[in-house]
# Entry
Amino acid sequence: MQLMGLWEENEVGGENAASVPVLTVSGLREAFPGWSIWRSSAGRLWATRNGRLTNEDYNRGLCQTIDGDDVGQLAEELRRQAALADVLPNGEARCYVPRDTSH
# Structure
């Protein structure tokens, strides 16, 4: 999964700081629409799935809620969860079809 829209230019003192990429929370929300992402009052980042997992999903290492110290750490865990979700227990690739959770 490619994380589009997560990088922005970091300007320091009016000069471009060597185009250092900065991950953003809003970029994570766009890249992972199946997750609700927020920052806790303690400053930690959290993400919880919009849909429910099955026992089989938990046994494969998928998590309902994950956290990270910063945006980069949360992005890494979201990518890891996406990779786990794309593989069935027998090693075959999963064809991901988003579920309608509106009802």
DSSP finds three helices and seven strands in the chain.
